[in-house]
Amino acid sequence: MKTFWNTNKGIRLLDEWEPNCWTQITCPTEEECRQLQSEFSIPDYFFSDIADADERARYEYDDGWMLVILRIPYVKEVRSRTPYTTVPLGIIHKRDVTITVCYFETNMMIDFVSFQQRRGEGFVDYVDMIFRMFLSSAVWYLKRLKQISLLIDKSKRDMDHSVNNESLIGLSRLQDSLTYFITSIRGNETLLQKLKFKLQVDELDADLIEDVNIEMSQARETARIYSEILDSTMETYRGIINNNMNTVMRTLTSVSIILMFPTLISSLFGMNLINGMETSAVGFPIALVISIFVSVGSWWFLRFKHLI
Known about the structure:
Blueprint lengths: L1 E5 L5 E3 L7 E5 L3 H11 L3 H8 L6 E5 L2 E11 L8 E11 L2 E6 L4 H13 L6 H36 L3 H34 L4 H67 L13 H22 L4
Parallel strand pairs: 3-7
Antiparallel strand pairs: 1-2, 1-3, 4-5, 5-6, 6-7
Helix pairs in contact: 4-5, 4-6, 5-6, 6-7
């Protein structure tokens, strides 16, 4: 989907492209990419790099064109193995052409447009727009981290009643999401530090960069703290599972030992050997009493040793 925005003194929707407007491309088709390449002579590999879901945050210059790839948070479908991840957002610029390309429809970009419309000031230039996208991504990382924190708390409450594989798998997937977040945020921070010296930054941009640094640092530290909490939580529950398994195995072993004595006694009395009670009427009751006495004694001994 292709959308044109006038960013002068506000964000206004345009019917067609005009110089110095912002062209927003979301989930582009191959035809749209070819059209942009032929119309503006954009290097073709720019779009393939942006389409790579694993592309790192970086910037590049080619034939006067600048490509900035920013990693932004993205929520997959509910049953995905990794519910929270990051995807690349490409910013392409040259003179009066500014294009953003994202192969995923994200809440961040929808919120970015609506927030700038409410703000009613537009962008001073493309540099201001780039750094505001950095700021928006940091804010959305914090929002997604709060959601992850709520999911962790919910899983912990569920596991307080019953520790099961499904809950542990859910925590493991959240751990993967936090790993993606931490890696992407660090990449964005490195990219931000490099762009400070590559772009024409004025005093207003410097203040904005400071805000971005603060938000990025907070997002990174929050993700790191949640990751450590999650590691500790999973380690604790793994210990609980192992302890429960040891308790069950110890109980089963103790029961097997208790049941072994009646089997041993009945086997001894059932052998074809002369023991003096073959023809006695009280032979079976005596063997039964001995079995019960030995079983109770072994049960008391194991209880005394806290083995059952």
